[in-house]
Amino acid sequence: MTEPAFRTEILENGNLLVGPWRSPKQMLHAQVYDSHASIHDDATAQKLGFQGGTIEGPTHFSQFAPLCERIWGQAWFETGCLSAHYRNPAFEGEEVQANIEKPKPGQTTCAIGMTKRDGTEILRGTASVGDVMETALSRRLGELKPLADPVILANLKVGMKTPRQTVKMDFDQHMGDLYPFSLEQKLKVITEPSAYYSQELNPWGRAIIPFEMLSVLFQYRAREDRLPVRGPAVGLFADQEIRLLRWPLFVGENYATEREIVALSGSRRTESVWVRTTVFAADDTPVATMLLNMASIKDSYANYEREHQALYG
């Protein structure tokens, strides 16, 4: 016997399925990144022109889970994919709402979006199941302009790979400086609770890791990669795609992660490294991937102008 996956109220609005308004909790106030406070710290964020510490992007992924499960059922938990371009930050106390387009029969990719009460767009992208070739971020990767005159990322090259690292997530495990909380603490405030996350009463007979916490698991030891990024500089997630390949990932299970730089890009304010993380089960089977665009804010790097002059004259 299994419990229902979610009890979230889902409404229909034209060609969309729409979830409830939610106020996600900010759990990264104490995050330490490159030995300094991160964009999720109020004072640091305000120095860079934000109204306060931002809610981490993948926190929003939880609000899409009930919508995707309504469309694709069990397949969502086994081969689901969320591919999102983050458009604007959300802050604690603000309400946000997730939507997904209704699929046509047999459709395996649907557009997704999230907005604030005032209409501000938080993210846009795609949700899909199965072996889908084109996602929101695969399209973005194909349209990127090469990074010109890098400073923070001057020593990075496309194709760089990191050694494998073992990661796991127990209920009471503190997830380190990057994620100063545990799964148990997250489950107390997650926007879309599910019995699947804490009990064996699901199709797999084991508690599964929520989609938003997969990002935490995959990034758990990322700082040990020692990629030659210049800093300290404040970074933020600009794009993120998480894809399950065969089945859910489970609480207490050992996995291995391996990272590869797949693109470098930039904007007037940022330098971006796009990293694809591949996650392996104990038998070396790939079970998930994550594509992450970590954008470093140029103005947050104290030596930016001086080093740019030294590098490029």
Strand tally: 13
| 3D shape | globular
The third-level CATH topology is Thiol Ester Dehydrase, Chain A
Strand content: 25-35%
User: Which structural category do the helix and sheet elements fall into?
Assistant: alpha+beta
Span between termini? 68 Å
**Widest beta sheet: strand line-up:** 1-2-6-7-8-5-10-13-12-11-9
CATH class call:
Alpha Beta
**What's the helix-strand series?**
EEEEHHHEEEEHEHHEEEEH
Summarize the biggest pleated sheet.
11 strands, antiparallel
**Which segments are poorly predicted (pLDDT under 50) over 5 or more consecutive residues?**
35-46
Please tell me how large the radius of gyration is.
Answer: 19 Å
Estimate percent helicity: 10-25%
CATH architecture: Roll
Number of helices: 7
Provide the domain count.
1
Organism: Bradyrhizobium retamae
Protein name: Dehydratase
Task: Explain this structure.
It is a single chain. Strand 12 and strand 13 form a beta hairpin. The chain is globular, with a radius of gyration of 19 Å. It has one domain (11-312): Thiol Ester Dehydrase, Chain A (Roll). Residues 35-46 have low confidence and may be disordered. The strands form two sheets. The chain has an eleven-stranded antiparallel β-sheet with strand order 1-2-6-7-8-5-10-13-12-11-9, with helices on both faces. With 313 residues, it is an alpha+beta fold. It has seven helices and 13 strands. It starts with 10 loop residues before the first strand and ends with a helix.
